[in-house]
Amino acid sequence: MAHNREDIYKLIKVLSDGNVHSGESLGDVIGVTRAAVWKRLQRLQQLGLTVESVRGQGYRLPGGCDLLDLDSIQPSLSRRARSLVGVCKVFFELPSTNEYLLRETPVHGAVCLAEQQTAGRGRRGRVWSSPFAANIYLSVRWHFNQGVQALEGLSLAVGVAVARALESLGLQAVQLKWPNDILCNQKKLGGVLIEVGGDLNGDCAAIVGVGLNVAMPAESGAAIGQPWTDLTGCGLKVSRNEVAARLMEELLSLLSGYQEMGFGPLRQAWMDRAAYVGERVTVRADKDSREGVFCGIDEHGALGFEVDGVVEWLSGGEVSVRSEVVK
Ligand code: BTN
After folding, report:
1. pTM for this model (two decimals)
2. Is the pLDDT of residue 124 over 90?
3. Atom number of ligand 1 nearest to Cα 126
4. Residue 58 to residues 24, 37, 63: CA-CA distances in angstroms?
5. Which is deepest, 101, 121, 236, 318, by most CB within 10 Å?
6. N-terminal to C-terminal alpha carbon distance within the chain
């Protein structure tokens, strides 16, 4: 099975240029006959790719396929970012990039990207829709030595880093929804999931996972239980490698100073992009659900909301915010 997967990846890499390749040459790439190639190509269709058979010539992927490629990502990184990367890997398929860095790569500064996730994880136990070669699924592992306390506000800070990365690519009007949804046109464009391993009072590792919709196929999008968008839908046409590089740049820069600086210096940057400030929102914590006016966040990243003239502050946990307008 693993061998098969590698073969499929090799075939997609060859076909990703959008040109016609003969069955014979494709067979040579993976050491099988021309007839056996066709069987493998059917697997590409299952991944959502359109394989066109060109009579008497071979096969092609019309329009090619924008695959992730470390050789394209690395030259776009600054020298500083490159020095912060422990190891960087791109996978054809993983259950979850967060899971991989949490359990299988105990390296500080490790970065992991996957073309697809078979068990992509969202917040609150949700599934994160992760179709092949369509979006960004990226995780970074970062070690802290002052326990989880040093991570206060980190998920909001990551939202700021993601917004900055997107803005540097020319996307206007990126908004952040507490605690860390990335919105564009009031629809969800991306999300952040931070998981922690190690000693919660001392040496621990934060796995910072970012999922960003780039060109979500309609079939995969249909399964998402809330209004969503992708970079294409927001009018930004950009290679996923460029997006990945900008995200790595911002995330590594943020993480390298976070233990020392904390969230405080980023509060204003978060507020500048905040969605729903001054609007009525529903705040859900566990099974409770309350309504109030969202008044912003404090220097710890806690959410302030006003009920009957009194401002209450809520932090982390399982709290979610929903605008009254956008359901
Ligand atoms: C959310 O629910 O808003 C958070 C979604 C986070 C998804 C990313 S994709 C990369 C990383 N690996 C995962 O399994 N989840 C995160």
Report:
1. 0.94
2. no
3. 2
4. 8, 11, 16
5. 101
6. 42
